[in-house]
Amino acid sequence: MKVFTVIGGCAGKTEVVRRLVAELKARGLRVSTVKRVPEALDLEKPGSGTWSHRQAGAEEVMLASATRYAILCEAPTDEEEPDVDVLLARLAAVDLVLLEGFKLTFYPKLELVQAGHDRRLFALDDPTVVAVTAEQPVACPVPWLPLADIGALADCVLANAVLPGQEDALRRLGADDAQSKAAA
């Protein structure tokens, strides 16, 4: 399975990922997603049965019905982001996994920029950002893709997604880029 990331310091990433999933499914691909959520978000209702299992010390808790299941696993709290490769290893095999919001990962990225943005683009400092999408053109060091053109966004994803392990080359590129900027 190949992996690609959608990032942005704004709302709207979930809608972009939703549209990408629908487009890629229409092209015959099997797609899964992993969404980064804030630590403050508890995935369970306090007082529920599975919540009490976690509170008692269960390593993992699986919630299961006839139509879906979810596994809750406590993760180390000393990391800024979950280990994406550990998460990917838990998924069933598919053609493509879209990561949403994992800005620190070294998988290739599409950066979403909202109109009137006033923050520094990740694309200026992150060599893994391969394109930027917004409603209007954005001055950036990578290609700009129209937010409304889901076909072009899907083409970008498919052209740049990598297999787990291949992001190591991007990690080295990022380290080399940082060293070059420090020397300048």
Structure in words:
The chain is α/β, with parallel strands linked by helices and 184 residues long. The protein folds into 2 domains: 2-36 and 81-183, P-loop containing nucleotide triphosphate hydrolases (Rossmann fold, 3-Layer(aba) Sandwich); 40-79, no CATH class. The chain is built from 5 helices and 8 strands. The strands form 2 sheets. A 6-stranded parallel sheet has the order 2-5-1-6-7-8, with helices on one face. A hairpin with a 4-residue loop joins strand 3 (60-64) and strand 4. Helix 1 packs across helix 4 (150-160). The mean pLDDT is 87.
Q: What general outline do the C-alpha atoms trace?
A: globular
- pLDDT averaged over residues: 87
The proportion of residues forming helix, as a percent range, comes to 25-40%
CATH class of the largest domain: Alpha Beta
How many helix segments? 5
The low-pLDDT segments are none
Structural class: alpha/beta
Strand order of the largest sheet: 2-5-1-6-7-8
What's the CATH topology name of the largest domain?
A: Rossmann fold
